[in-house]
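[Q] Does anyone have a clean structure-token version of this?
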Amino acid sequence: MRNLFTFILLIFVLNVYSQKEANFWYFGENAGLDFSTGEPRALSNGKLSTDEGCSSISNADGDLLFYSDGITLYNSNHEIMTFTDGRLATSLEGNPSSTQSALFVPNPTNKNLYYLFTVGTNFVGNASYPVNPGFNFYTIDLSLNGGLGEVISGPVSLDTNPYTGEDLSYSWSEKVTAVQGSCGSIWVLSVVENHFFAYEITSTGVNNNNPVISRVFYNLTDKRGYLKVSPDGSKIAMADYNEGFGSFGGGSLVLLDFDINTGVVSRNIKRLTEPNTEGAPYGVEFSQQSNKLYVSTFNNENNIYQFDLTKADVAGSKALISSQTGYRSGLQLGPNGKIYNSIPGNPFLGIIENPDDDASEIIYINNGIDLGTGRATQGLPPFIQSFFKPVDIVDVNDPSIVLSNNIQNVCIDKSLKLEPKLEEVSLGTYNYLWTKEGDSSIKVTTRILELTDTNYGSGKYNLEIKSTDSCGNEKTYNSSVEVAFQSIPTINNSIIYNQCDYDTNSLDGKTFFNLEAKEMELSNNAADVSVEFFELDDTLINNKVGYINRKAAITNSHILKVKVTNNTTGCSVFGQIELKVTPTTSGFNQLKNIYKAENNASTDITNFSKGSNDATFNLDKKIDKVISNSSGVFNRSEYQFKYYLTSEDAAKETNEITAPYTANRYSNGTKIYLRISKGNTCEGIAEFNLFVNKLPEPLNVINPNIICLNFPNNSPVLETKNISSDTGNSIDNYKWFLNSIEIPNETNSTLIINKGGIYKVLINRYYPNEPGNEDDIETTGYKTFSVQESSIAENISIKYIDNQDEGFNNTITINVEGLGDYEYALNTNSLSDFKKGDNNLSYTFTNVPTGLNKIYIRDRNECGIVNTNEISFIYFQRHFTPNGDGVNDTWNISGIDNNFYTDVDLQIFDRFGKVLKIIDLKTENGWNGTYNGKLLPTNDYWYNAVLKDVNGNIRKQTGHFSLLRK
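[A] Here you go.
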């Protein structure tokens, strides 16, 4: 048996079909495609501009012959063909607005004779076109006009029922299709209402007088929509497009059976779509293998559905492939096996890349092929559907496997037998020729071709079958398959895997094996391979990581089968691995523990340390220690040293702790297992612990943020404060620093300070750990304290302005010195009344009232509140109105009604300097505007005031005021 692995190719199709007649397509608005090289390329040399129907055909070598829209016929030079009488073929009986207005069909035996079938339409857009001329055909002789062809006859009407004489042209549909029949004949089919007309073409021509008429149980509701026969000739799909005036009508997609031997269409139908659900059906197409059917529908969007013809419930297999903006569209199978979709106005065709696959696997490319300067319309050229029926190449040992669809990858130790999937009929003759591209020496004429890596090898093999059927008709089939012989993987059969027995029964010769860990070595480090393990009785081992050998493997080894498979090619090779077990009696070897200072997890490493409860351990040093203590037994070149967190992991070799070891952090008391191996032999497993020595951290921190000083030089010392960083551990040592300079002789946990600065304490803790000083550890913690100096306000100076014209616009500006953060209040020391100025050492009060005022200065750092002496503000009235209304009836000095002034002497003059009044304002209430009992008139008067305060200070003031009589 061969070992075969298949690639599905979506871009490159390997079949070379039996006919190349479908190589050239002309359609739409001057659009064209050339399939000569396999994948299509856009053409711009076509003359067609058609809304829907069109047709084109090439010869058996793939050379363009003709194309037409059903009205005008063009030859291979893109010139209008003529009739033999010289008339231009420009008024044929088709119509560019007919769904399938034209179809070319060759004579089965005469390579010079071709027939052009046309169907008209009722929807005529040009008055010169006949009103639905029905179904007609023309005969073309390619040998005329220098091989460009001429129309030698036609139109010949096919729309009259020869048995009743009824003219059916007006009712004829826009549908026509063709398929090969038996004995080399070709059936051309069209439909009118509920009758199918099948015309047989043989070597003698079109049998237009004896059509096979089949009445079916479905009556067309509309003439529009495509008609197609499956490539194998067994099925007919008909789209009854009934849409218009905002409705999607009552038409459906209908599936029928067809007999290529008799031309009979089955009466019974399968209705696959409903217009109110899927929309109005228009384009239809079968996949190349005739197992899938596609329909395009329109319901304000362009939709494509797939139906699986292999299912009993075909309608129920419906699957939506594409839905997009666009009008109704034609579908057409191409020579490359892909189906193309034409949405009107689009400069691209959509592509169903893999039509024979199930719906879930379908790849649809919306803008699949660029039409260049051309534009798609509603139609694509139909062909004889049998053009697309492939001759499959299959596997002789399993004919259900079609090889010609895919690249066949065969392992070099296997063979592949190829044969065509073509049933040989009696009385027929078949000649086979297998050739290999690039090697002209290979010519095999047997039906079956057996390939090995050594006889013919990898390459693309082409098969040509020349046959003569029982009717004497000759036919040539072509197919192709590509075969790639793939190398098989290599396997290392020399591995002896020796495990130490450290499980619960360490003497029974059975223990854990990690087979997965040996896969790379077994496969010689190959990439993209799978490794499987089996017992000798072929039982697959699923638990490769925790496998326990079935039989004791102390004296005799336990053998397992090993299979290495290339994941891409599927090629595999078998080998074995030998398992041995070394019993143990004393448990795990004990290594010295490792001690490490706790990691600093501080979020502010500049100001304090904080323990992380874990540490970073350099396990590489432990390996160096093991090697140095082994008296030369161990070394890094021959031995492997691997770390694990559990004894089971060490035994199974799973979850290894890998380098760099400093990337891992471990908590206190973590147990580590060190496995030492030499190649595939376990030399032993040792264990040790990782201990984390804690960083010292202060418990109850006292951190004074402020210290109050005597400004400016703190003499005498105003206060001292304590900074505490006690860890609660009496063995800890302390060092104190001020502004990065060590403070001599300060080694206690508490520091007494009398000035500000940045204080830092280093706390050292010594861990003796195990006996000896090899593993002694000293850890260091630290904390920073920031202490700010402050003081009460000192050296207070005051500037003030009173006696303003408005009487209330008085100001006081106070300036202080000190280290504090100051705020100020007027005539109150309530905390809520203090205000912070723009300048810390200065503040100005406005609108200060007359009378005595006092300023309070508070240090916001809580060093205290101080106040100024009382400041007197006075105001000399600018006018008075002695009219007895109780308001300004006397002239006076405001702000002296207190004990601050002991004497206030006042003299009042008229403008000539005459003394009008001498008053002591400490004993009298002011001047009432009289002189010797007489009222003085409205006028300006002058004053001279002398004020003496309690401190003996004299203030003199002169000025004038107005007396107003109202």
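[Q] Thanks! Anything notable?
[A] The chain has three helices and 74 strands.
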